[in-house]
Automatic annotation (TrEMBL):
InterPro entries per UniProt: DUF3108
Record's protein name: Uncharacterized protein DUF3108
Pfam short name (any one): DUF3108
Source species: Algoriphagus antarcticus
Amino acid sequence: MKVNKQWTISKTPTTIVLESQIRNFNRLSARFFVIPLEYRPFRQVLSLKFMKRIFGSLILLLFFTLSDLSAQDPVGNVPFTFGEELSFQVSYGWLNLADAKLQVAKRPQDQNDKPHYKIDVYGKTKGAATIFGKVNDNWGTYLDVETILPSLSYRHIEEGKYRKHEFVHFDQKNKKATMKLFDKENRNLKETKDFDLPGQVQDMVSAFYYLRSKDLRDLKQGEVILIRGFFDKEIYNIKLIYEGTETLETNLGKKETYIFSPQLPKNKLFRGEFPVKVWVTKDKNKIPVKIKANLFIGSLNLDIISAKGLKNN
């Protein structure tokens, strides 16, 4: 017996049908399992527009939550290394919407004649979420090995038919940034724009790795950390609240964690002033193991699935 399962959409817009075509002795039969989607949150979550906002927001969550960007703070012992790979699953209730990955290249990469960590964040829809449009995003940075400051950041966005290819070159010494925007095929330069920076800044990806290099042991519950970074042609200044510690069950086992909550700008996606919590392991690796975001309806979860190539085992 051969089973071929395929997700299809019925003529009723509020229903998803799983059709199993079962071939046995050249006779075809079908069984249908109907899952009603009569509630607005499910229709909203599975829309392409929502998924586009989610992936941008997930990167912003890492940026806003995991980045103490005071330029004068010294960098401590770097807890990550070449070849590190963190994999996550994005879910809404019982729906698995996407996979996400944070990956450090296996070897140093040269930028401005200096060695850099090349770090990529990948996000890709899967399962039922792809019915309403595919999202396949790549955000990255070249992080100076010595200063843990970015020299170059980039975004390659594929969301349905939408495409965006953007590069930002940072001159940290002279407090300048140059943004270059390319066409849909990432071949021809469309726009170049220069920006003045208030000081040394991080981009959205480098910010997370910068924080991991900080000593978090002396933080006190309720302590406020001020954040500064550059993203999408703007400088962001925001508050980060340290909420204490918690023992958390994860796919990597039971972990002692730090808990952080960022104060996000007002938007139509999240609920409340501090709608997001992030759990970071209280060990030498300081990796994120869970992010929970309270939406206007329900909550979005990003949970770690695997961690490879960790510097500290």
